Amino acid sequence: MGLLSRINNSGSSNGTSTSNSINKNGTGLLARAAATTSTKTYSSFQEWAKSNGFTHCGIFSIVHGMMVITQAFGLDSQTVANSVSSRDFWKGTLSSNTVLNYSKKDNELYNFLQFFSFDLKSSIQHISFLKIKNNSDFSVLMVYNTDSEKEINLTDSIGNSLKYNSDTKFDSSKFNKQLSSYFLYKISFEQLVKTSIKSIQLPEANITNAAIKCISEEVFDLIKGAFPSPNEVSLGLSNTVNIALSSKIADESLMQNHINLLLKEILNAPSQLPGLNSFGTEDNSDNLVQFLEK
């Protein structure tokens, strides 16, 4: 159930809500890997992660000669920024396409805690890595969980299904032009992302931009999941989330509160949270598309 539905069903509640977590879209703490040869291409890395039952995972890719998480699901912003590492480290650690599985009882697990935020280090119970060949280079799939009773059991066959789009541009061809009117909102969060990782020294601009892009796509996925169809949600050009609601929200302050709870963990409990800005209503489909594309 999306966030909008929960708001509409909240009635006269005093603003309390069930806990919203950055791993809320998973199917539990067990990260089950499906041995599959599926050729399906998923709409995003986050959709791929959910389809495999993962709650926390990321892809280390090469950016400006270094490895950094460029796709993430269930990871906070400081973990993404902390992920910068050398190619030699991963070449030495993952010498083949064999999966490496570790649990908290294995001393080797502690070699990887340097990549995680302070908030996550102590919670990780199991972690798995798989080196994935990309033409002449490679990337690394990382999956972890926080349940000591549930192993991950990642297998190398999962790499066969790792097909997803990374283009977040709004697809106007799928826009529902039949509705008469939408209520428009924007959420700006780029500065909050930058603030959440400012204590981490990143080596150069390309890596910084890659980290911000990765975190922004996670933010977008969380908000988009909270406002399902027939609502429309897009990632704007300046790291804004554009929201076109098919029905009026009775209590915008409650809506704001839910969004704040939704993003609190991923942005490492910032002192400020994204503001919700209203842009009125619109019933012209061309104007609506323009709003969602910017």
Structure write-up:
Helix content is 28%, strand content 21%. The protein is of the alpha+beta class. It has two domains: 3-21 and 167-293; 45-161, Beta-Lactamase, CATH 3.30.450. Strands 3-2-1-6-5-4 form a six-stranded antiparallel β-sheet. The chain has a four-stranded antiparallel β-sheet with strand order 8-9-7-10. It is globular.
H/E series = HHEEHEHEHEEEHHEEHEH
The mean pLDDT is 83
Shape: globular
Distance between the termini: 27 Å
The chain-level structural class is alpha+beta
- The percentage helix is 25-40%
Summed up, the domain count is 2
The total of beta strands comes to 10
Topology:
Layout: H1 3-8, H2 45-51, E1 57-63, E2 66-73, H3 77-82, E3 85-86, H4 87-93, E4 100-103, H5 118-121, E5 126-134, E6 137-145, E7 182-188, H6 190-196, H7 205-226, E8 232-235, E9 240-245, H8 252-264, E10 276-282, H9 285-293
Antiparallel strand pairs: 1-2, 1-6, 2-3, 4-5, 5-6, 7-9, 7-10, 8-9
Short description:
Helices cover 28% and strands 21% of the residues. By secondary structure, it is an alpha+beta fold.
Which key phrases capture this entry?
294 residues; 10 strands; disordered N terminus; 2 domains; alpha+beta
